[in-house]
Model the fold of this input.
Amino acid sequence: MAALTFDPTVVATPNPSRFKRTMHAAVVEAFGHPLVLREVEIPTVGPGQILIKTEACGVCHTDLHAADGDWPLKPVPPFIPGHEAIGMVTEVGAGVSLVKVGDRVGVPWLYSACGHCEYCLSAWETVCPGAQFGGYTRNGGFAEYVLADPKYVAHIPAGLRPDEAAPLICAGVTTYKGLKETGARPGEWVTISGCGGLGHLAIQYAIAMGLRVCAVDIDDAKLAHATALGAELVVNARTVPDAGAAVKAGTGGGTHGVLITAPSLIAFKQGVAMVRKHGTCVLVGLPAGDFPFPLFDVVANCITVRGSFVGTRKDMAEALQFAVDGKVKADIELQPLSAINDVFARLHHGDVAARVVIDFRKH
Ligand SMILES: [Zn+2]
Ligand SMILES: [Zn+2]
Done:
């Protein structure tokens, strides 16, 4: 597919009092259709809000689900997807003191939460019923500017480039939180099932957390990468007759934690079979369909199966610090915003080896 050009016919009325009032954005105008590259008005900063000039924004599978309207809670077109935006604060609204102009921040999936429900009060703001989601219920980072709530932005430490940080504020924090939720302790084993965009980060976080890693995938190249990242045991779930048995044999009875990043129902079922007795299997992938739940194994082996969804602001700060310390680095591929529909098509076909990051320095 050829890269689309920006449509000059759709231009909001410019405000002559400002140096620039329009921006390039990739807009979902209807579910299941290509994004439309348009010039739209730069949003106005209200009280308690900040405006960020986007430097980089990662592309995530969730953006495909948003653009296709796949999930029960749907965004309302037209909207701008993207929940891995990193940029500089260019404007702060009335009453904002947490960030200042010139700070580098990230605008994540957890765009904002209510701050006072039982979940927010117990550091579970990720499940706040009043939460808003970046690039979903609020416009996101596939645009040159994005509005944000300063109470919920990620603070990007010095020493981390915007394109390096972008995948970490969704894929990074999701896998790091998922690993914490396995309850596995230093020296114990964890299986990372799916070694692609999420999994290659999960392996690095796990090793940085002192865990021993078993990597499972159906692609030998990804497994070779897993070994290079420090996985001690690799299992090709396509070529071995029983992946669960292979993991159990290689780890003395299964791994204490299992993190399923692959969006595959087969991987979900196999993952439960890899857990050590009394261990925990954490799901972060979201394949369509019903989970094939192996009830007998779960009950008889006292296994916990748990969902995990992005991470809190505290998890975010920890996840970024591992990268600053040089322990975690995302494999990234830079693309201009004008290539967004090609990137979506490749993601649909599983044809992306690394995390794609939209680089706003390119056009
Ligand atoms: Zn995401
Ligand atoms: Zn809340």
User: Anything to note?
Assistant: The chain has two domains: 22-170+312-359, 172-307. The pocket of zinc ion (ligand 2) is lined by residues 113-114, 117, 119-120, 128, 130 (CB under 6 Å).
